[in-house]
């Protein structure tokens, strides 16, 4: 009985696995020994990673991603969430940390059309 259940699970996972169209990763920057953003971007490209979620909009990271073709989703850092209730402050954050990298040859930003 147990082996039969296991085989069914493997079959279901195999079918679901064939439906995956891409793979993305979360990229955090809190580390003792950080790799350079250029190295990380090259590793992502070498491994076929097409999407990445950043937990801050570090200038070096965003610059390294520019022109890479990797789709980027930028999250607001947790320590700044409380102040983002103010619309103008949130709009300014997006302008400083997202919009400035959104140009031809820049960072491919994962964002609805009206977020800029």
Automatic annotation (TrEMBL):
SUPFAM superfamilies in alphabetical order: (Trans)glycosidases (SSF51445)
EC top class named in words: hydrolase
Record key words, sorted: Glycosidase, Hydrolase, Signal
InterPro entries recorded: GH, Glyco_hydro_17, Glyco_hydro_17_plant
Signal peptide: 1-22
Superkingdom of the source species: Eukaryota
Gene3D superfamilies cross-referenced by the UniProt entry: Glycosidases
Catalytic activity: Hydrolysis of (1->3)-beta-D-glucosidic linkages in (1->3)-beta-D-glucans
Pfam name, any one: Glyco_hydro_17
EC number(s) on file: 3.2.1.39
UniProt family annotation: Belongs to the glycosyl hydrolase 17 family.
Name of this protein: glucan endo-1,3-beta-D-glucosidase
């Amino acid at each position: 009985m147990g082996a039969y259940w296991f085989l069914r699970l493997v079959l279901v996972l195999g079918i679901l696995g064939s439906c995956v169209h891409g793979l993305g990763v979360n990229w955090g920057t809190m580390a003792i020994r950080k790799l350079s953003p250029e190295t990380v971007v090259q590793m992502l490209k070498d491994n076929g990673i097409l999407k990445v979620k950043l937990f801050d909009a570090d200038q070096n990271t965003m610059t390294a991603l520019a022109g890479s073709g990797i789709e980027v989703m930028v999250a607001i850092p947790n320590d700044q969430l409380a102040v983002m209730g103010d619309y103008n402050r949130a709009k300014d954050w997006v302008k400083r940390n997202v919009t400035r990298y959104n140009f031809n040859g820049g960072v491919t930003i994962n964002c609805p059309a009206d977020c800029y």
